[in-house]
Specification:
heterodimer; A: alpha/beta; 6-stranded mixed β-sheet; about 25% strand; globular; B: mainly alpha; two-stranded antiparallel sheet; 2 strands; about 75% helix
């Protein structure tokens, strides 16, 4: 079982009535990987993830999560749930319980729970251990969700839009937490709206649109990003000039010769992940 | 680890957690535990008549209030709070953990039982102090009282869980559930003497457990010869047990099969 990939999907189809939410998804996530699913709202991200988590049933296709079919019921499924952690989109439960009460209680559900104090430290809620969930800010609340997702020391963690509503600082420290989990061997499947988050965290990303996977690649090579022409910008005759080139170094050297050294307001830009992504899903021409 | 002991252990822990959460919501504590006492105070003060020699209306009313307390703490409370837990994502989160659904049910049953004991004790103490309520004196009355409470809370818990699939949202749940409970209370002889109700109302009420629980509680709290004043001229204890067991089994099957963890 430990040799199987963390997630294996082939030919996954999900129909809601006549409408196909997923039209044949193939995907493999290796153990130890951080894998990001990107896509606009309604593209099929949540449907895919909820099938993997066992919340929804596939219409057809093969799904294996840690070598197990999530649609299985009974005590085998309970055993499997010991090895996965789920952080859902924003929840609002346990409002009257404190951070420590909630986390300690959930620790009881698992065969091999992590140390409660350590988890609280890791998610940065030490100062809030006795605060009720209703008293937490949005970002702190999300950290509690993550704490509940990792308390069972999962081999595989699902994170559904984990940093929505975070300020930039909270976001960065959250990323650190995710990297720590990865260094401890946790596989992570992440859905996000933030391209910089995918860029910062993911080993590989899949772009999904209209229930189909458009491409799976590393963030640096997605959409041919690494080979895409770079944009060179400079100031000449009082206005900004631009050109696209597959060999920007040469262009810069030519310009440097023309200006006899310093090129005014020089910029060399590679297309960022967001531009590539928007082009892929047809939002940007 | 043994699956059954584990399920029970988690169930007990959930019961503790449920109780803790409940006690922290002041409105629900007041509404669930003190409301019957408040009603007893109002009815006991307004209706001072005796309905039979040596039987005051408050004596009659306490029997009904204890019975409907079982419906309030179990059926009403669960059928309202479970849809709210569904809206808040509590249930979805639990579904994603190794906790079994049986543990969740055990936790709810434990909460209902404890609330029921608190509420009944309060009613009895308050009734005795304010309205000179006569406590049952024979051991057989106390035995009947005990199994009525146990079977009644079990039935009420299971039906509350089963009915929780009906409300479309947590916010609307109270509007769906409360009228049903209030109507059943009127029809089942909680607020009025049952025999003074129209026959169709009596017959309608006889389909549901509350009428039987109320009648059973009257057999505990009213003098033995009051039985002749009942519709059947008899306490119908065996039939009461049978009706409750049927509802319990049907409710359990429905609850296990149809329980909804999320709205979609």
């Amino acid at each position: 079982m430990s040799q199987s990939p963390a997630i294996e999907i082939s030919g996954l189809v999900k129909n809601y009535g006549a409408k196909a939410a997923l039209a044949g998804i193939d995907l493999t996530v290796e153990r130890g990987e951080i894998f990001a699913l990107l896509g606009p709202n309604g593209a099929g991200k949540t449907t895919t993830v909820e099938i993997l988590e066992g919340y929804r049933k596939a219409s057809s296709g093969r799904v294996s999560v840690l070598g197990f079919d999530p649609a299985t019921k009974g005590s085998a499924a309970q055993k499997w749930r010991n090895q996965i952690g789920i952080v859902l989109q924003s929840t609002n439960d346990s409002a009257d319980l404190s951070v420590i009460e909630t986390i300690s209680h959930f620790a009881n559900y698992y065969e091999k729970p992590r140390d409660v104090q350590q988890v609280i430290d890791e998610v940065g809620l030490r100062e809030k251990v006795n605060a009720k969930a209703r008293e937490l800010s949005g970002g702190q609340r999300r950290r509690l969700d993550v704490a509940l997702g990792i308390i069972g020391s999962p081999q595989l963690l699902f994170l559904d839009e984990p940093t929505t509503g975070f300020d930039p600082e909270a976001r960065r420290s959250f990323w650190e937490l995710i990297r720590t989990l990865q260094s401890e061997g946790t596989t992570i499947l992440l859905t996000t709206h933030y391209l910089d988050e995918a860029q910062a965290l993911a080993d590989r990303v899949a772009v999904i649109n209209d229930g189909k996977i458009i491409e799976i690649a590393t963030p640096d090579t997605l959409g041919g990003r690494n080979n895409a022409p770079a944009k060179v910008l400079w100031l000449e005759n009082g206005s900004t000039q631009e050109l696209f080139s597959n060999n920007p170094t040469e262009e810069v050297m030519k310009l440097s010769k023309r200006f006899d050294g310093q090129i005014p307001e020089l910029q060399v830009l590679r297309p960022n992940l967001e531009e590539i992504y928007l082009r892929m899903i047809g939002e940007l021409k | 680890m043994n699956g059954l002991t584990e399920t029970l252990r988690i169930g007990l822990l959930r019961g503790g957690l449920e109780l803790k959460q409940f006690m922290r919501q002041r409105e629900s504590v007041v509404f669930t535990i003190f409301f019957p006492v408040i009603l007893l105070f109002i009815f006991g003060t307004v209706f001072k008549d005796t309905i039979a020699p040596g039987v005051t209306f408050s004596q009659y009313f306490v029997a009904g209030m204890i019975a409907s307390g079982l419906v309030n703490t179990g059926f009403q409370q669960l059928a309202i709070t479970i849809p709210m837990e569904r809206d808040f994502g509590t249930l979805k989160r639990l579904r994603g953990t190794p906790m079994s659904v049986a543990s969740y049910f055990i936790g709810k049953a434990l909460l209902v039982t404890i609330l029921m004991i608190l509420q009944t004790a309060l009613l009895l103490v308050f009734g005795t102090l304010m309205f000179g309520l006569n406590m049952p004196t024979t051991p057989s009355s106390w035995i009947t009282f005990t199994w009525l409470v146990i079977l009644g809370s079990a039935c009420s818990t299971v039906l509350g869980i089963a009915f929780s699939v009906v409300p479309k949202s947590g916010r609307g749940a109270s509007a769906v559930v409360s009228p049903i409970v209030i109507i059943l209370q009127f029809f089942s002889g909680v607020f009025f003497v049952f025999t003074s109700l129209p026959t169709w109302m009596q017959q309608f009420a006889a389909i549901f457990p509350l009428k039987w629980l109320t009648q059973g509680m009257r057999s505990v709290f009213l003098p033995a010869d009051f039985a002749t004043q009942e519709v059947a001229k008899n306490w119908e204890i065996g039939k009461t047990a049978l009706v409750l067991v049927i509802w319990l089994v049907l409710g359990l099957i429905f609850a296990v099969k149809k329980f909804k963890w999320s709205q979609e």
